[in-house]
Each structure stands twice: as C-alpha cells, then as structure tokens.
Amino acid sequence: MQLELSSAYLERIKHFKLPEELDKVNREFFLYSAEQGTAYEKITISGLYHAIRDEMIADVNDAGWGKSEDFNRLTDYQKRMLMTFINNACLGAYRQWIEDGKQMPLEDVIDMTNCLVLGGVRSFFQMKTRKLHNLTVSEVGMGCMAFSHGYGQIPSEQYSIEAIRNGYDHGCTFFDTAEVYSPGLSGIGHNELIVGKALKDVRENVVIATKLMLHGFSSGSVYQTIRKHLEASMKRLQTDHVDLYYLHRMGGTSVEKVAEAMGRLIDEGLIGGWGLSQVDVDIIDRAQRVTPLTAIQNIYSMVERDSEAAIIPYCMAHDIGFVPFSPIASGLLSGKITPQTQFESYDDVRNWVPQLSRANIKGNQPIVDLLKQYAEMKQATPAQISLAWMLHKYPNVVPIPGSKNKERIVENLSAANVELAEGEFNALEASLNQCRVYGHRGLGGF
Ligand SMILES: NC(=O)c1ccc[n+]([C@@H]2O[C@H](COP(=O)([O-])OP(=O)(O)OC[C@H]3O[C@@H](n4cnc5c(N)ncnc54)[C@H](OP(=O)(O)O)[C@@H]3O)[C@@H](O)[C@H]2O)c1
C-alpha cells in the first residue's frame, strides 16, 4: 500500500528533513541487521515493537524508555539501531492500520515519526544550543585542526571523517577548520577537504566555520582577495556558503577594509557571519562599527584568561559570540599530561605551548588537581569540568575543544551535560583564582 503524501504533509515535514533522516537510518538498520542478525532479535525483546503495534506510541514515549535499564545497557550504536527499528515499526504499524481500514490522521503519523526519529535518534544525542549572534550552534563545538596539523601524527583520512561524523551523531553541529590547517602548515586546505567530505550530506544541519589568512593584496581589492580565498574554501568544503568566516590573524591588514568586505559577502549570501581571531578589544570595536561581528575566536581556558577583562564583556554587550580555542590548554586540563609526557617531534604545538614546559606542568598541578577533585564530585572528567566552567561562566561562549580521538571527542562534547550549580561554580572559581598559572601565551604572536 502506497502512502499518499498530501501537500500539507510535505509542508510540515519539509523543516524536519524527515525523508533524509529516514533514508539514512533505514539504510543503516538494514545493513546492521544483515550483518548481525541476533542483535535484531535482542532489541525486539524490549517489547517496544509490540507497544507500537498496539498503538501505544504515546505510552512508549511517556514511559521514559530512554531511561530504562534495558535501554541504557545498549551501546550507542545499538540505541540508534533500536530507534531505527521503532521507526520502521511505526511505518509498519501505520500501513497495517490503513490496511485494517482504520483511520489515522496524517498529522499523527508525522508527529509520531518526528517524535521517534527526530525526537529519538537525534535528540537522544542532541545538545543544547547557543547563539553566536545570528548562528545557532551546539553548546560545544568541534575543533578539527588536529586531523591535519598541530598535535603530531595525523590519523588516516577515513578515521578523521568517521570521527567528525561521530561527533555529529553525538549532537555536535558546530565545526571549526581553517584554510591553513595542513601537515606542518606547509600546504593549504588539507583539513577543509576532510571536513567537507565528512559533513557534505548533513551540510544543512551544521554550522561550518573556517578562516582565511591574508598576506597582502598584490592584485585586486581586499574584497576580491577575500572572495578568492572564500571560493577556494567553499570548493574544498563542498558547500556554496560558509556559515562563519574568520580572519585568522590581523597581520598588517586594515580591519575596516576587511569588515567592509565581509559585510559585502554577507549581503551576497556567501557567508552567514564573520569573525576575527586572536584580537584585542580595540580591533574588535573598530570592526564592529563597520560590520557587526558574529564571533571572536581567541585562546581561552582556565590558564589563558586574558579575554575575561574586556573582550568577553564587550562581546556580551554587543551580541557577539565568543569561541575559545585551545579550551583544554592543549591537553593540560585533561589531567593526562605529566612532566614525563613526551610530545612528538614533528608539527606538535605542545613543544612550545608555555604551560606545557616540564617546569610549568609541575607548577600548574594545583589547577589540574582542582579539576580532578571536581571531576570526582561531579562524576565527570577534568577536561569536561574545564569546559563546563566556561559554559557556566558566560552565556555567549561556545568552546571548540580539539581531539583526533573519537572517544575523547565524545567525552568533550558531553561536557554540555555537566551542569555546575551556582555554589559549585563559585567555589571552583574562587579556588582557581587562588592558583598561580605557570606559562602564558596571551593574544600576541602566532
Ligand atoms: N584561531 C586560532 O588561531 C586557533 C589556534 C589553535 C586552534 N584553533 C582551533 O581550536 C581547536 C581546539 O584547539 P586545540 O586543539 O589547540 O585545543 P585543546 O582542545 O585545548 O587541546 C587539544 C589537545 O588536548 C588533547 N585532548 C583533548 N581533549 C582531551 C581529553 N578529553 N582528554 C585528554 N586529552 C584531550 C588532544 O589530544 P588527543 O587528540 O590525543 O585527544 C590534543 O593534544 C582546534 O582544533 C582549531 O580548530 C584555532
């Protein structure tokens, strides 16, 4: 029996991208059940199928199945498969109802599938969102640099793509890259190509930020030069627009000219918003007067707090997002680095990150200990506490921790689930303020 899709139905599902979601999960489900037939039976044991077949959709939904012990025992992948199964069962049940001559308003089916597919598969991993001016992004984003540069050996392209997609599957909708991210910073676009491949079929659901580096304007205007960089980035990212386009470093560039060019690109619909990186409040103010900024991306973490004095307050007052890079202090705040840790010899920024010299790792131990103490108390990890700290502190902050490891990426994204109560935050902040920080990079230099 064919379902007739009325125009009202199509109108409603348009915003949910339901067909794509269904297609994707269905494909995964069939693949999975073909490969591992037994898992299929296992998940039916939950009885959800029968609940659905018995028209108990609402009950299933209200029963808090997502919290049931059975459900929590499943791996993330199995949970996704289970949702797929439910979805299939919903459609099956709907067909059955029609065949049985029962009436079911299409609206109910839409709500049912939206609720189960989008409200289930996606929202199970969905993250709270924040606004960077006009852009809505997941509370924690993903810094993609290390798949190409900065932390030693890079993973295979396949692994990197899977890691980015896994981040998306765990609710991340904000991805950070730059044209210069390539092994040893010796080429252009390595990272953008990976990000483009990883996100091309979910492009409409994500916010992609990339950055350009300007080295003078030998030919053409600032606008023409920026546009050329942008077009090359868009090609690598397999997209017809970039959501957030940053100038990576000021260099000797006139910020007013850049702001004007960015304003034009916004008007042309080629970028959704613009930003600056590693800048002080005077530059921000000059830029803001020409074209309102979307976000500032500066170094910021528990051990790099220069932006707290004037920059973050300025951003808050002017509805500008603040995107901290190196929010885990290049790994220091994860508590996994010791004075004995050997960094890699090629393309590893940890060899010069000031807080990571042997002496400074030792000196900063009280801060790491403080994080460990809170991590134990909150059943979280030190890296998560350091991210939860900044999320609690400022409503316009969206950190972009970087990792080239699938599990640690998920760990960092899950920091959005770590809530610090006001008293906990105040005590943490007070203790942090008592600690001396050893090593400082600040906004100067590269
Ligand atoms: N605008 C700029 O100038 C600028 C500069 C630098 C970076 N960025 C952007 O900011 C993003 C983040 O910066 P970042 O990568 O320097 O900072 P980071 O997240 O503070 O540090 C990354 C380092 O910490 C480790 N790490 C991350 N999470 C961990 C965890 N949960 N447990 C243990 N170790 C963990 C990573 O190791 P593993 O990979 O082994 O997990 C890696 O060595 C970059 O990806 C890039 O997109 C921008």
Query: Can you tell me the CATH topology of the largest domain?
Result: TIM Barrel
Name the CATH homologous superfamily of the largest domain: NADP-dependent oxidoreductase domain
- Ligand inventory: NADP nicotinamide-adenine-dinucleotide phosphate
Strand order of the largest sheet: 3-4-5-6-7-8-9
Q: Distance N terminus to C terminus?
A: 63 Å
Task: Write up this protein.
The structure is a single chain. The chain is α/β, with parallel strands linked by helices and 446 residues long. The chain folds into 2 domains: 7-124, no CATH class; 129-434, NADP-dependent oxidoreductase domain (TIM Barrel), CATH 3.20.20.100. The protein is 48% helix and 7% strand. It is built from 19 helices and 9 strands. The strands form 2 sheets. A 7-stranded parallel β-sheet has the order 3-4-5-6-7-8-9, covered by helices on one side. It has a two-stranded antiparallel sheet with strand order 1-2. α7 (76-99) runs antiparallel to α8, α9 (157-169) crosses α10 and α12 packs across α13 (281-290). The longest helix is centred in the N-terminal third of the chain and has 24 residues, at 76-99. NADP nicotinamide-adenine-dinucleotide phosphate (NAP) is lined by residues 143-146, 151, 176, 277-278, 297, 325-331, 334, 336, 383, 400-405, 408, 411-412.
